[in-house]
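Appendix C. Worked example: Right handed beta helix domain-containing protein
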Amino acid sequence: MVQYEGGTYRNNDNNQIRLGSENSYIDGASLEVDADASEAPNPDEALNYRGVRIEMGHNYTPVDVSIRNCEISVRSTPQTGGAIVAESTAGHFEVRNTRIGVDPDGVRAVLGKEPDGGAYEPPAEPHSAVFEDVDITGSASGNEAIRLVGRPDSLVDGCRIAQDGSDRDGVALVDSPGTAINETVLDVTGTPVTRENSPGVDDFTVEDISSVDTPSEGTGSDDTDSSDGDAGGSGSEPGLRWSSSGELTIEAPGDGGASYLLTVGDNLEPSTDNGATIDDTDDVSRNTAMGQVGDGGIDSYTFDGGILAFEMDGDAALTLNDQEITADQLPDNTITIASDGGRSTYDLAVSVALGKSDAMNATVDDNDDLSGSHVTGQVDGGGRDSYGFSGEITGFDLDGNATVYRNGEEVDPDDLPTETLSITSTGESASYRFTVGGDVERTTTNGATVDDNDVVDGKTVTGQVGGGGRDSYSISGGVLSFEMDGDALIYLNDREMEAGQFSNNTITIASDGGRSSYRLAASVALGKSDAMNATVDDNDDLSGAHATGQVDGGGRDSYGFSGEITAFSQDGDASVYLDSEAIDPDSLPDNTLTVSSQGGRSTYEFTVDGDVEKTTTNGATVDDNDAISGDTVSGQVGGGGRDSYSISGTVSAFDIDGDAALYFNDEEVAPGDVTNR
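Step 2, the predicted output written as structure tokens:
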């Protein structure tokens, strides 16, 4: 048992104070980090200027530690995990009646890491955290003031968070269900509260509290007076109180009206509160309401799970939990999947919350599987599905022909991330490098942090994680290659993977001296690579899983790919390597033929001069109702489906009955133009 009472702890490397044994506490102490004011000979070489580090090692019995009546300031630092850091070995901890000031960008006041134990077994439950009467101030930008990962049933009660740095969020909860935020005031430039897989009660106010007192600044002091301790800023109006459970009222003026669309997380019900009427003209379906008010009319709704999306056309006054608000203060993100005639299936995931919506005249039905922030569904015969969501889209996959809209604007489905890749440290540190076939973007999904030491360069990412940290990326086009040095866990869409499970296939085209042009296609994804000392430049045309390019003067082009090579041709003298082994280019298929249904059923038959093989290129399926007999293929497509074939040689005969579209090496062609290409 270690108990600190009073004292000042300043500019110590690693941490100012470490807690971890049973019934340990800090009471009435001042902890200061200010490397710029340090008198040490090498303050910028410190490894980690934490304020308080809570780390329990392999103690598997319940251990309560607390921080109370303290002042903690982080003013300048080359490196810190945060003012208070609960490591992966930390169980329950409490912070009460404490002031925390944080100025360096990206630094959190509190970081509660996922209590998975790291290199040890997980700590004994409970894993919750309690914050009561805590003030957090300072100019830090980016990330959030408090972040809790895997800390269910936590409590933030009577706290005040005022941080004016750009893009600074308030409280971020990840995998922490049952966490309550009570009577808390937030004044941040980013999102006040985000919940990822963390349903719970929200009761917080957003308002100007810039006059909240700050902790002493390092070697000096702050004489800011907080008067009587009232959380409100001087002379400011009461802020907007947000609640995961509440009531929204829409009231039309006496001479006007408005139509609206409301999507919530759960339990949407019309109400007669606030003088509202329940009218047949308003339609409530599951967690979405579409209605209208006019000539002084009033509609009210009670809900749980928060408001996911709100759209209004016209003039009406809005009241949320008895507070006047504007439509611009409510989230309005929607995504719509519209069938182009045939059947299409989709898989959609977002970082925070998701709910069914009838935006863009979509239907709200039960044939889609919606759970939390993830849904799988289907549209057919011109139908539409819409969803309101908060956070960001972290994964979208579409099979079939459908048009996708985001907030009413058409988007290319290929521009949306298809998967989430997460790397979680299990040791001191691990470095990694991976390449994707499409786009890649850093994200905070799964409790990850966005750090400056991770670099996204086109389709390739290099980064590092340590001390139980986690990096996440929204990706499209699949993972083409993955290399890692150190101990870390890898997850693809929450499925644990090994680095060797990712495709590390490469193909290299090496000029033999003169100029050689080539055309290349893969069945799943394709991305530029520097394998075999190849150059990565912009004079090659890469689109999806297809590339055309050239090499000259002994130069080399390399590509990582997933799936299989479905087409390759070259004009000129060049050597070709598959996974760094020289191969005969003639052993690769020359062309890809795709038959794509436009909704109705089509049958086809064709003959090739060479070899032919079924492939999943261009989103095709491999079905038993398509047959290859020698050099002849017969098959059928329908309902928006696709069939694709890798062909060595040419198509000598082709016949089709139906309205399917034909693509030869990604170029749409007429049936009469398929042969002898």
